[in-house]
UniProtKB/TrEMBL annotation:
<dbReference type="InterPro" id="IPR051051">
    <property type="entry name" value="E3_ubiq-ligase_TRIM/RNF"/>
</dbReference>
<feature type="domain" description="B30.2/SPRY">
    <location>
        <begin position="266"/>
        <end position="457"/>
    </location>
</feature>
<dbReference type="Pfam" id="PF00622">
    <property type="entry name" value="SPRY"/>
</dbReference>
<protein>
    <recommendedName>
        <fullName>B30.2/SPRY domain-containing protein</fullName>
    </recommendedName>
</protein>
<keyword id="KW-0862">Zinc</keyword>
<feature type="coiled-coil region">
    <location>
        <begin position="159"/>
        <end position="190"/>
    </location>
</feature>
<keyword id="KW-0863">Zinc-finger</keyword>
<keyword id="KW-0175">Coiled coil</keyword>
<dbReference type="GO" id="GO:0008270">
    <property type="term" value="F:zinc ion binding"/>
</dbReference>
<dbReference type="InterPro" id="IPR043136">
    <property type="entry name" value="B30.2/SPRY_sf"/>
</dbReference>
<dbReference type="InterPro" id="IPR003877">
    <property type="entry name" value="SPRY_dom"/>
</dbReference>
<keyword id="KW-0479">Metal-binding</keyword>
<dbReference type="InterPro" id="IPR013320">
    <property type="entry name" value="ConA-like_dom_sf"/>
</dbReference>
<dbReference type="InterPro" id="IPR001870">
    <property type="entry name" value="B30.2/SPRY"/>
</dbReference>
<dbReference type="InterPro" id="IPR003879">
    <property type="entry name" value="Butyrophylin_SPRY"/>
</dbReference>
<dbReference type="Pfam" id="PF13765">
    <property type="entry name" value="PRY"/>
</dbReference>
<dbReference type="InterPro" id="IPR006574">
    <property type="entry name" value="PRY"/>
</dbReference>
Length: 457
């Protein structure tokens, strides 16, 4: 388009012309190609013969002029022909309006020139529309069709992978189930055999004891003094025989070894199902109970972070019966006595911490083991101290080997199965599992003697 047409004030439709104009060969060259003319000829209001082309631009021809200008419009002020266009005011004007009237000094062009510019712009817009239509057709015919085939292929592969994974898990579960059921059956048979042996042994012992007693009673009741006196050997034999029977004693051999049901595979899948499924949930609004926080610790404003305090920073907090006064402990405000719950604590690089649970009845006053997490029958904790990790309960420490030092420790408490599980949330690896018949509501509990630990939500 020539520079003189840059003055047109048309509101040009914006089209995304992302392809090179060279694809069509339309813009900036002669536009008298058959396809473009055909597009125009399809519109009954426009005849292709109404256009003539010169130097790459479209100009109004005589046939168009006669069609459009069949009725001459006059200026309402000067009664002259409206043969000019005022770009400043955006309206048709006459020559007198330009020289003496309201449009004096405005940007004005001849009506024919303005019409030519408008036509050229419309041609450009139509060309762009045609290009856009071609792109849409190609997108529908090629891109979308190819995308549909690709999606169908990928979906088929995804379905095969899902089925393969589920089948692998199902096969592993079935094999593990069979293995565990057989292990439980063998253990049941072992215990039943032990019980049968014990029953037979003690039945014989009972007969022996009964015979010895009957013999002694007969000797006692039917012997004369002389016979009783000379029956020392017989009496001694019966007494020795009775004493040899011994006393029955219950042993671990008569109990089912519950380890026969343990399986790392089953434990991992069970924990993953609970942790990743919809059944697990953290205690609502879990935070530390400010009343329980030891004076050796500080509690953040959101009640989610415990920080060990150097001696110079410690202050005596208000006295409270719920407060741990000797060990750097704290418990949460939410007790657990049903359902499945999980929560995670950020332990960072702390060199001394404990995370776990305790009964609500655990003692809190004094320096004894009754108030020390992991050193009584009312608390179960995962502990880190002096570079070692361990599980602590009732004063017994079980060393736990970790492949990577965890910066977070997660806890999963399933009340239904009476199971407490410690895990690493970053690797989803199980650190330790506890099977315990909990008899009281439990509180999440922590201790920290280095840096800080925090509840994560």
């Amino acid at each position: 388009m020539s520079a003189e047409y840059g003055l047109c004030d048309l509101a040009v439709v914006s089209l995304r012309d992302t392809e090179q104009e060279s694809d069509s060969g339309m813009r900036g060259s002669s536009v008298n190609n058959s396809k473009f003319q055909a597009d125009f000829s399809e519109d009954p209001r426009i005849s292709a013969s109404a256009f003539r082309y010169s130097n790459g631009t479209v100009k109004a021809g005589s046939s168009t002029d006669s069609a459009v200008s069949s009725e001459v419009k006059l200026c309402s002020v000067h009664e002259s022909e409206l043969d000019r266009y005022c770009s400043t005011e955006g309206r048709l004007v006459c020559s007198i309006c330009v020289t003496q009237g309201s449009c004096e000094g405005h940007t004005v062009t001849q009506l024919a020139e303005r019409a030519t510019a408008v036509r050229n712009q419309l041609v450009d817009i139509c060309e762009k529309m045609q290009l856009q239509a071609l792109r849409i057709e190609r997108f529908i015919q090629h891109t979308l069709s190819e995308k549909e085939r690709t999606v169908q292929a990928e979906a088929s592969i995804a379905r095969e992978q899902v089925v393969a994974q589920v089948n692998a898990v199902r096969e592993a579960l079935e094999e593990e189930e069979q293995h565990l059921l057989e292990a439980v059956h063998r253990e049941e048979e072992r215990v039943e055999q032990c019980l049968l042996t014990q029953r037979e042994h003690w039945s014989k012992a009972l007969g022996t004891l009964s015979n010895a007693r009957t013999s002694l009673v007969h000797t006692l009741t039917h012997s004369t003094d002389a016979m009783l006196v000379i029956s020392n050997q017989e009496i001694s034999d019966r007494i020795e025989e009775a004493e040899g029977v011994g006393n029955p004693k219950d042993t671990e051999k008569l109990n089912l070894n519950k380890d026969c049901r343990n399986s790392k595979l089953m434990l991992g899948l069970w924990a993953s199902a609970l942790l990743l499924g919809s059944s697990a949930r953290g205690p609502a609004h879990l935070h530390f109970d400010e009343r329980s926080v030891s004076p050796l610790l500080s509690l953040s404003s959101d009640c989610c972070t415990l920080t060990f305090l150097p001696k110079r920073q410690r202050q005596a907090p208000p006295n409270n019966s719920e407060r741990f006064d000797s060990w750097p402990n704290a418990v949460c405000s939410h007790s657990i006595s049903s359902g499945t719950h999980s929560w995670v604590l950020e332990v960072g690089t702390s060199g001394a911490f404990k995370v776990g649970v305790c009964y609500t009845s655990m003692q809190r006053k004094g320096p004894g083991n009754d108030t020390r997490l992991g050193y009584n029958t009312k608390s179960w904790v995962f502990s880190h101290y002096d570079g070692d990790f361990s599980f602590c309960h009732n004063g017994k420490n079980m060393t736990i080997a970790v492949v990577k030092r965890p910066t977070k420790v997660g806890l999963l408490l399933d009340w239904t199965t009476q199971t407490l599980l410690f895990y690493d949330p970053d690797t989803m690896s199980v650190l330790h599992t506890v099977s315990q018949a909990f008899t009281e509501p439990l509180l999440p509990a922590c201790a920290v003697a280095d840096q800080s630990i925090s509840i994560l939500h």
